[in-house]
Write the structure tokens for this entry.
Amino acid sequence: MDGAGGENWPAAIHQVLARYRVTQVGYVPDAGHAALIRMVDADPSMQGVVLTTEEEGMALATGAWLGGGRGALLMQSSGVGNCINMLSLIKTCRVPFLTIVTMRGEWGEFNPWQIPMGNATEAALGLMDLQVLRAGTAAEVGPMVEGAARLAYDGGAGVAVLLSQWLIGAKEFSE
């Protein structure tokens, strides 16, 4: 999906991941990340790894780092709640960690089950000492992810970039 201004923000994220030599990208399939996931899977320098649950992404990123590589995690805000305990691995071991989180439970949400975790995502990540950045427009995505990647991979931090529901678009329910 192209965001405001016609910018292809999934391609901007992919370019940053490639520039920072990210070799492993874990994800639980998500419509908000679908275009980016296709780019990762098509890129011979990256290995897309389908996860059964989001917290496996912390182990994947840690293993990549211990092996001399770089990992990233793509997830939806509802998956952040699944990760809280495993984020202690990132914090305690000081693993360079980058996650890109598509938000739900915000603008235009139809599913009431998405709202609580959508409201708690930023605070939950902050409580686990991740730097939390937010992109609300397509023009912000590339520079935001670039800064986050630098902070994670050059600065050794845990960083989450939240992509607003306004940016990714509200899902529609269909029967």
Remarks:
- The longest helix spans residues 138-154.
